[in-house]
Design goal:
It is a single chain. The chain is of the alpha/beta class and 226 residues long. The chain has one domain: P-loop containing nucleotide triphosphate hydrolases (Rossmann fold), CATH 3.40.50.300. Helix 3 packs across helix 4 and helix 3 packs parallel to helix 5.
Amino acid sequence: MTETPLIEVKDLTKFFETGHGRVEVLKGIDLVIQRRERIAVMGASGAGKTTFMNILGGLDHPSAGTVRIEGRDIFGIQGSELDRFRNAFIGFVFQFHQLLPEFSALENVMMPILISRVSSAEARRRAGSLLDRVGLSHRVAHKPGELSGGEQQRVAVARALAMKPRILLADEPTGNLDSRTSEEILELLDGLHAGGDFTMLIVTHDEGLANRQDRVITMKDGRIAA
């Protein structure tokens, strides 16, 4: 019996209507991703990489086509149910961290756990354990503004993994970091993936980062080129 792919994308299309006509961003993408794969998505600016990632994560809707996760069409899920599905299945790491500035590192990592209605005590325990895993047990009480860029990204990685997601989506996770800090974040992601059970997709312009993954997908003009 053939195993259901973790992610199956069919004829994915995204366009916008403007006063000057239709702008096509994604033009019929087909892609199958298996469990525990590490995939880099590369391409020039404007190739559609971030739009593709946002649709995979349920943050944006396609104009046509389907995205199935473990056989389930995620755009057949509506409203708050999609929010719960996304919180449980998918973790996000962004280039600019997207941490809540008024909350501590611990509280930022606790947030997705609390959203799932886990007790505050259990959320605190799990968040503390994750911050320890990313090397920040000594910084749990610090707010983002008191952390370096690399430390903020470590908090963001811990938050992304807080719900033990099936999928980690990272959009230029080292794009705002110096080379030494970038290498530290990449080694962290490699180690977490090796010890975890999630599939990782990374949008990047960095060939060195891309070549560390199992597979490289190149996008050009809204299509998968290679």
